[in-house]
Write the structure tokens for this entry.
Amino acid sequence: MKTQVFAAIAACALLGGCAEMATGLAAYADQLDAESGAWWPDEHLSERLDGDCPAFSEFGRVNNQTYYRVRNLARTSASMTMTWSTGLTSSFYLAPGETSNFVYMTPSVTPSHLSVQC
């Protein structure tokens, strides 16, 4: 079993990057915790980013999943990138007033930093 786990981690490292591997390992650990009865409490948060490219983020956890979406409040189109706690990124290109689709992650992976360019 130990050899199989090592082989799976090595294959993941070869096929993906470090962020993808960290996210995959977090998902695996969360799945093991969930099978042992772990439950992450639901939480709903929001944050407004002001400045030249204003944006409004909604994020939190629901049903053992982390979620995130962002709305472009600028008068121009914007390119936005959410960096997650594992280093994985989610990118959005939004027109003025447009809201992204929800992005879901395993519960221990959380939104870390939003960068916005108009």
